[in-house]
Amino acid sequence: MTVPAAIGRVLPTMNQDGSRNWIRPKPADGAWWHRRRIVAYALMVVFFAIPHIRINGMPAIMLDLPQRHFTILGTTFLPTDTLLLMLLLASAVVSIFLFSALFGRVWCGWACPQTVYMEFIFRPIERLIEGGRSGSLILDKNRSHFHWRRLLKYGVYLVIALFLAHTFLAYFVGVDALERWVRLSPYDHPTPFLVVAATTALIFFDFTYFREQTCLIACPYGRWQSALLDNESLIVTYDAKRGEPRQHGVKNRPASAGDCVACNACVITCPTGIDIRNGLQMECIHCTQCIDACDAIMDQVGKPRGLIRYASLDQLAGKPRHLLRPRVILYPAALLLLLGGFAFALETKAKADVMILRSQAEPFTVEQDGRVANQIRVKIANRSLRDHEYAISILGADSAQVIAPESPLAVKAGDQRTTSVFVLLPASAFSGGRRDIKVRITDGVDYADELPFNLLGPTRSAKSP
Ligand code: SF4
Ligand code: SF4
Fold it and tell me: pTM for this one?
């Protein structure tokens, strides 16, 4: 079947006939590449180390979804900490806005896991096994044909994907549980096994097949950039004033020719396959590879470096820099407010959450001796960083017999437990079927509170419940 040719610009990963254009960028070994490599490997070490680091006896980051306990740098957020989590999330979003306004897509090019692992793990392995950017060690270029080098590459990719998936899962279940599960049969823990299998498959698919299309198609961040950037934002950009009109070759250049020698080195090195000389594009992840590639060419042809460089659009147009502009003032102000609110809420948050609940069965029972028994359920969430024992007592009912089998109640840091307390009172202690009391909870150190509660009993007219 003949496919009609696309009209106008298509994705760099797609040929005019709709087939996949496989991009194999040539690495540009320059100063920016070295800086990015240091940052990338440092980020990998941090990612692998975090699940093993413990602060106050807890993992540095642990996102326990089933329990809805989120531990971040020694602080545990419970479901009741919605305000704190929202402030943290809003601070992260405003930080992204601020960084984008100042430094463009610095996240995409320097810190996004997609870029970091693709450019500094998966592509180098591919070049090592298959030979250079053209896969010169494999003569048959048809990707669907068998070649032991391709098989070896996929095998290595699978091992790395498995490792990444296990590390990722450790953020949600902790390394101890993960180590236990790894030693057991999948039949003993089918859900985590399926989660790891699915995550591994997703990582493998992403870095083997989908690749840069994640940035071009799946990630929304590139589409936001026109809203997040302004003319003063620092971006990787081509100096068209200096480079144009581009003229192929070095010899016999007319005096009117720009500095661009039309060597295409900036295109060949681009991991998203674009030509930066076409201006700011959604596909540009600001990875700086074209800066290094062009600087090397400028060195060869004896021209100053920086034809492609970090600059703002206003800088390129020769306009003076304005560091202070509305979004660079408003974003930090908003960030300050959010972080201030977060710090205040964190500092003043109660060291425990206590809920007093009525018995799920009968509201009260009448004992053989005529006394009325109420069962009170006390749920305590320890929001502090230390284990505590909570004493439970009843105020406002001196004649009551209180049976509290688990007082004091031991609750581990960040954990929560529920216990029952039984209060027995003579029927005469109730007025209109109610008796107001207070339940006092204290850990003797950080937390003490008295919570009102209504005991229920028979009304005067009733003889029994
Ligand atoms: S145009 Fe340059 S900075 Fe942008 S993605 Fe391509 S190589 Fe990276
Ligand atoms: S690498 Fe530099 S000189 Fe070569 S085509 Fe790109 S911009 Fe022009």
Answer: 0.78
